[in-house]
Queue: 3 jobs
Job 1
Amino acid sequence: QVRLVESGGGLVQSGGSLRLSCASSRSIYSPTVMGWYRQAPGKQRELVAAYMDVRRETYADSVKGRFTLSRDNFKKTVYLQMNSLKPEETAVYYCHGRWGASEYWGQGSQVTVSS
């Protein structure tokens, strides 16, 4: 069993920045996928950004140029730097990791962007 613990969410004004952290109980040297999803009220969960196949990064079109992934393998932590946040990006942000056929989710971190 892998435990993923998010932190760093909160309330920010439109145009502001937040950095989310996801600490993993398992090494993040070689997950198949490691990244972030979000789910806004009444909407489906969507991919925000993720490392695919260890190092390749992918971003949702809506966040390209504003959000950035980074990682600290020693700390087993993945980060999501979010800049120029918009009110419509208010959501619960979930850390997600997949090692082979097994996938895991964090408990979620609320991000609220006020207009």
Job 2
Amino acid sequence: VQLQASGGGLVQPGGSLRLSCAASGSIFAINDMAWYRQAPGKQLELVSSITRSGDTNYEGSVKGRFTISRNNAENTVYLRMNSLKPEDTAVYYCHAVTRTGLQHWGQGTQVTVSS
């Protein structure tokens, strides 16, 4: 499974971005997908996850601002980020877990929230 993330960039506080992650390869084997992020000097943290059937989970600080969604037909997962804050600045990574438990990571996309 290969994951290609896109959609990051520079945005002002209060702005919005939508991240996309396209999966290719053995896509039939993918179960859960997720977005992680790593801010400078901080540990990698789970932002949001979604199961194949659409059940979602969010980290506390992004609840109500971020929305994860998934298009199984297009093998793509999205992260809509609204009301962005400077503390959301990080490299965002797409993550997938297959039915056999194998984990795959995308290359990361930079999100910078700054005025």
Job 3
Amino acid sequence: VQLQAYGGGLVQAGGFWRLSCAASGSTFSINDMGWFRQAPGKQRELVAVISSGGNTNYANSAKGRFTISRDNAKPIVFLQMNSLKPEDTAVYYCNAKVRALDYWGQGTQVTVSS
């Protein structure tokens, strides 16, 4: 499975942004897809995850502001981010789980200016 993330950029605080991540390869075997992020000097953390059936789970920091969605036909996973804060600044990584294996995209930088 290969993952290609798109959509990083610079946005002002309070604004919105959308990330997308396209999977290729043996995509029929993908279970959960999700987004993680890593800020400078911090560990990578979960932002949101969505199962193949559409069940979602969010980090507390993302609840109410971010929405994860998925198009299984392609497959592509999206992260809609609203009410962005400077602390959302990080490299965002998409993730796909295939049985016990994790696959990662290359990371895309999102910078939120105050």
